[in-house]
Write a structure and sequence with these properties.
The chain has 4 helices and no strands. The protein is an all-alpha fold. The N and C termini lie far apart (about 60 Å).
Length: about 100
Amino acid sequence: MGLFEGEMDLGSLSNSAEDFSHAKPRASSSVAAFVEFEHGIIKRTGEGGRAECESEGQRLGRANLIIDTVKVQKLRNEGCSIRQIAERLKRLQST
């Protein structure tokens, strides 16, 4: 019997590679349930990728800036603003 007669084969769902147990919809609509499900997949993928990088010893995030504090202090004593110092030392970085 097919889906149109009101029956559905649930055996194929139990063999699925994706685990649906994490999907707990907060809203009653099917769209919200799908969004919640998709968010769970993306979150687990990201967590897995971060864990893999960390296990391989890769550093995550932005690289540390190396700043010559002597030059910074000299420019501050000359009356330069923080922005001007950053421009002169070519250390402008957006967040």
